[in-house]
Design a protein that fits this description.
single chain; about 260 residues; alpha/beta; Nitrilase/N-carbamoyl-D-aminoacid amidohydrolase; six-stranded mixed beta sheet
Amino acid sequence: MSDKLIVAAIQMDCVTNDRKANLARAEALVAQGAEKGARLMVLPELFGTGYRVEEQDRGLAELVPGSITNWMCRLAKKYGAYLIGAVIEDGGEGILYDTAVMAGPSGVLGKHRKMHLWGDEGRRFGRGEDIRVVSLPFGKIGMLICYEIGFPEMARIQVQKGADILVYTSAFGRARDYVWDIASRSRALENGAFVVACNRCGQEKDTAFGGLSRIVAPDGTILADCGPDGDTVVCAELDLGEVRRMREAIPYLRDMDKRLYNDKF
């Protein structure tokens, strides 16, 4: 099995409460990523509906699998790739979740419900409870969502569970783009893992989104990135052998005191 893998972070603007327009835009960008050879592609948080849809959350929510995740699976099968993006999930019993979903050629392979909720999200969504990784033919993936980039313990737990690549599907605000810059590189360096940090751009209501999607190497080097504005497919080739080499060079994982993590792994 080759250690080389092309990944893509798909930065895009979204139209509030217009699933048809958003999926059409996303499909064109996924096609561009596939043309560049990407086998793992990451879309922004709530890319299918827009993020500032709090008044319509319940009407836009769907089961997993559902309409947007079925769309993801169709494209995954078409291109022989794996897609990650976040949707508003109807979790039953009247609870909605902000949920990252992994879609592959064979269907939905895993999901992560956002655990750390930003601002008004605490009134919109329930909190997820599980921290998992998804095994793919080329490695193990940890899925996280937006604000969770600032919670290093989540990334560390996923890495201890085997993750080689940490993926953040995001609608991160422009006002805090300095946090995005520091945290995306820090999560990579302290875990010796690749980070695919996909953010949306544009504006909804009074929220401006920061863009700056990027792919970061295990030593904190930015392999590929883009600016704050515009639909962009950010691609990079990963050498997964760098994960092992970086963890040997700076052995944070070997030397950590696991008692701090309360038997999470």
